[in-house]
Amino acid sequence: MLKTISVSTRSRNEMIDITDPVREVVRSSGIKDGIVTVFCPHTTGAITINENADPDVIHDMLLTLDALIPHHRQGYRHSEGNSDAHVKSSLVGTSETVILQGGSLLLGSWQGIYLCEFDGPRSRKVHILVS
Ligand code: ZN
Questions:
Q1: Pairwise CA distance, residues 25 & 128, whole Å
Q2: Where does residue 94 fall: left (phi above 0), alpha (psi -120 to 50 degrees), or beta otherwise?
Q3: 119 three-state secondary structure
Q4: What's the whole-model pTM score?
Q5: Ligand 1 centroid to 119 CA: how many Å?
Q6: Which residues pair with 104 in a beta bridge?
Q7: Among 36, 72, 90, 109, whose CB has the most other CB atoms within 10 angstroms?
Q8: Alpha-carbon distance 70 to 68, whole Å?
Q9: Cα 32 to middle of ligand 1, angstroms
Q10: pLDDT mean by block of 10 residues, the chain; 131 residues
Q11: What is the distance in A from the centroid of ligand 1 to the CA of 122?
């Protein structure tokens, strides 16, 4: 079952925990065992899984990505001015797959699923396939 959700982002760089909406799609699918694929159909966004207990982890991840991939850099050619966001999108990746067992996502205790925004604020779509 495929469902698409919309997420409004608020900052240029941001990571939004979408674990609960993904769980809701899984619940409504009625599928108990299988896999869930979470896909971001945007060239300046991404999906990742990381800690959702200490928000400082997300802060530090965004800080590190910004240090490695600056917004403005001599040599960028892309006229839209968001080359950093395109690079971050490809490095982080546009999808994650999670195992579904007995109706539950097999995430670790401290793991959450994040939509990564690298050129916000925007309205983003996330495709969630339960199979
Ligand atoms: Zn662009």
A1: 7
A2: alpha
A3: coil
A4: 0.97
A5: 9
A6: 101
A7: 36
A8: 6
A9: 39
A10: 98 98 98 98 98 97 98 97 98 98 98 98 98 97
A11: 13
